[in-house]
């Protein structure tokens, strides 16, 4: 049977059919971790409660973010919920299309898309279920505080950084080296 399949579809064709959608396991795993951590924080903490994890550097602080990154537009009356939800859904659709079109061996780009997709889905789930995003990771140092964030935000940030890195690396060169 394999000889017949290989005669009809050579190995090169079979490899090309494998797409970046194989990286969706990363997306699913991170969405689950993101949602579980948010459920845990909402159950264990009172709103605005803060507990030191690493004294003077890192806290768990339960907050609601009605805006986007850095609470952008958080006090705009509610319309921003739907704007950010629509943007995240549109970006998610584009990332899924790119993942489908990408060869599986474009691992850096596929991984970056999967990470960004997981963050978008995690935060959209919050906006749809609660009307806000649950943030709880609080980094600070000597009175300076980074805005609270969550696992989905970390995935988006790491995915964007990887995407920038990948932009400077030519995947086709990797393909040529691997085929030798």
From TrEMBL:
Active site per the UniProt annotation: 135, 153
Membrane topology (UniProt): Multi-pass membrane protein
Any Pfam family the entry gives: Peptidase_A8
InterPro entries hit by this protein: Peptidase_A8
Gene Ontology cellular component annotations, sorted alphabetically: plasma membrane
Transmembrane segments: 21-41, 79-99, 111-132, 144-165
Protein's pathway: Protein modification; lipoprotein biosynthesis (signal peptide cleavage)
Cell compartment(s), UniProt: Cell membrane
Single GO molecular function: aspartic-type endopeptidase activity
Swiss-Prot/TrEMBL keywords: Aspartyl protease, Cell membrane, Hydrolase, Lipoprotein, Membrane, Protease, Transmembrane, Transmembrane helix
GO biological process, any: proteolysis
Primary localization class, coarse: membrane
Catalyzed chemical reaction(s): Release of signal peptides from bacterial membrane prolipoproteins. Hydrolyzes -Xaa-Yaa-Zaa-|-(S,diacylglyceryl)Cys-, in which Xaa is hydrophobic (preferably Leu), and Yaa (Ala or Ser) and Zaa (Gly or Ala) have small, neutral side chains
E.C. numbers: 3.4.23.36
Family: Belongs to the peptidase A8 family.
Main function: This protein specifically catalyzes the removal of signal peptides from prolipoproteins.
NCBIfam families per the UniProt record, alphabetical: lspA
Record-given protein name: Lipoprotein signal peptidase
This protein's encoding gene: lspA
